[in-house]
Amino acid sequence: MSDEAQRAKDLLRTLAHKGFKRDRSETKAYRYTGGLKAAGRDVSVSITFPDLEFTRLPELILLNPEQEAPHVVAHLTASGGFCFARNEDLILDRYDVGGTALMCLELARRGLERALTHKHLEQEIAQEFPQHWLGMPFYYDIAATDHIHATLYYVPRNREPNLVLLTDRVDVLKRLVSDEAARRNVIASSRPAFVFCSNTDLTFGRDHRQPLTLAAFIAWLESVLPNTGKRAITELAGRFPDHLVSLFVNAPNGCVGILVDASLPILRGAQRQQGLERIAMANAATIGVQRYSGTRVDLPFIFRRNLNSHPPLTDKRIALVGCGTIGSHLAKFLVQSGAGHDDGTLLLLDNQTLEPGNVGRHYLGTTSIGDSKPGALKAEILRQFPETNILPMTADAVGFLETLAGYDLIVDATGEEALSMTINHHFVAHRYDHETAPDVLHVRLFGNGAAAQALLVDGPNFACFKCLKPDHSGNWRFSPLKSGVSAAQMVAACGEGQYIAYGVAAPVMAAALALQLILDWKNGTPTPRMRTIRIEKKDTQEVADKNPDRSPRCPVCGNHQAE
Ligand SMILES: [Zn+2]
To answer: How many whole angstroms from 552 Cα to the centroid of ligand 1?
Structure first.
């Protein structure tokens, strides 16, 4: 017997034992029908396993919800399914077909029990309210903290207007549509909306469920925001005779709304706005609505969501010196972490143009060959994050350091030892002279991309960059390279200069190392200030991450006192 046949047999035997029967009318999947006992009721369900690999959860459908589970409003899906667990929360065991099937049935039964008894249900619904609303998807960014007029934009993707954006500021549209001409088209086809603001979480009380009609929506709205029903009708008709206004509610736990079809014959009879209001009010129970369930697209959500305890870099002034292999990837990482947004600035400084030889390990591609690195990097990042505040500067870093004194953080990704020493000297000396200076992070590769090391210099208590190599002809104190290993210089064409060969992996790892240290710096937890990654094990040795001590022989800070 084949593995698949054996698994199908195991599944059938297990489910038959629970009174389930295979539904042979479903030929593409394994569908069984039967009953689950929950809250003293028998609930008829079907359970469908899309395949026997168990990579996805089976789908549970209530076969007779009106009679057997009339009060179930939570965890329903738009296609009539009952969501008993989330795919990402539950990993099925491919090697235990029977046990896995029984576990799914039991989870489904417990979910139904909770839904039928309403125990803790309002909080459970509130946790993921827009999902429970069972609406069409839309994105929203609403700044107002009061009821406000807003706009629905239909954003084209794959040549169809299939993204819906709700916002109270037209600038937000730039986030999804960077091209100005395309934005004008989207604005021309926009629709009016009205957003009620709720300071408390949205949920369904015992008497409410997903509204199908205007009357049901208004009844639910009144349960959330008392005395707003009449306002809702007034706003709905407020753009007579051009459009019906869509109605939304924005709350701490999400945003949902409804659209009313303006072509309904009963609504088209109105001669005046007041007439439309009267007709809508009188016929609210028969006027169908299309529900919409929102997903946040605001910048705090975008930049905070994945950072957990780390605050994003949105309010920092960061200067990235060196837009080469490490710097180009790091620039993108920084912007992804919020740099250059809100009050923040990201300055990109480099004096080189992109050459064909750079492309194999740079963030930019062949279409940027011949472009200034900072300018092309800005253009590429703005294509993805159009709201970023980036200052590109095509200049030699040495003549520019004085103007960087007002920044919060200087990132030295030049990878040139002499230039790094100059940057270090300038800002360490500046700190001793002025008692304040930007913090400086140096990041670089050792050997042929064999290891990456980052060092944060943020005060006199620990090593500066020169402390790591106090003697010009001496060794690095914390070198990850085994002795005898050095960077193999490749002989290059005349005029191009020698170069060190390594692929894109090494600079991306160095950029990632630097980013994590920068996020920890922003979080106020920069220890350990020196961090090393071994990329090629055979040429490298372990270097412990630590706050490195200063060298008494350092010509920059050797004579100064620690704090
Ligand atoms: Zn030093």
So the answer is: 8
Residues measured by CB to lie within 5 Å of ligand 1, the ion:
464, 466-467, 554, 556-557
Q: What is the CATH number of domain 3-119?
A: 3.10.110
What residue segments make up the domains of the chain, in order of their start?
3-119, 130-297, 304-534
Q: Ligand 1: distance of its center to the CA of 550 in Å?
A: 6
Distance of alpha carbon 346 from alpha carbon 341, whole angstroms: 9
**pLDDT 10s digits, 92-123:** 999 999 999 999 999 999 989 888 887 778 88
16 Cα–ligand 1 center, Å: 75
Task: Report how far ligand 1's centroid is from the alpha carbon of 437 (Å).
Answer: 15
Q: What is the residue type of 212?
A: L
Residue range 430-464, pLDDT digits in tens: 998 888 999 999 999 998 899 999 999 999 999 99
Q: Which option is the CATH number for 304-534: 3.30.450.20, 3.20.20.70, 3.40.50.720, 3.90.550.10?
A: 3.40.50.720
Q: What is the distance in A from the centroid of ligand 1 to the CA of 508?
A: 28
Residue 161, pLDDT score: 67
ipTM attached to this prediction: 0.99
Write the pLDDT tens digit of every residue in 137-157. Answer: 999 999 999 999 999 999 998
Task: Compute the distance from residue 402 Cα to the ligand 1 centre, in Å.
Answer: 20
Q: Output the CA angle 366-368-373, nearest 5 degrees.
A: 130
* β-pair partners for 166: 140, 152
Distance 420 CA to ligand 1 centre (A): 13
**Pairing assessment for the beta strands 41-49 and 30-38 based on DSSP bridges:** antiparallel
Res 493 pLDDT > 60? no
Ligand 1 centre and the CA of 457: distance in Å? 9
Higher pLDDT, 80 or 17: 17
DSSP per residue, 181-205 = HHHHHHHHT-EEEEEEE-SS-----
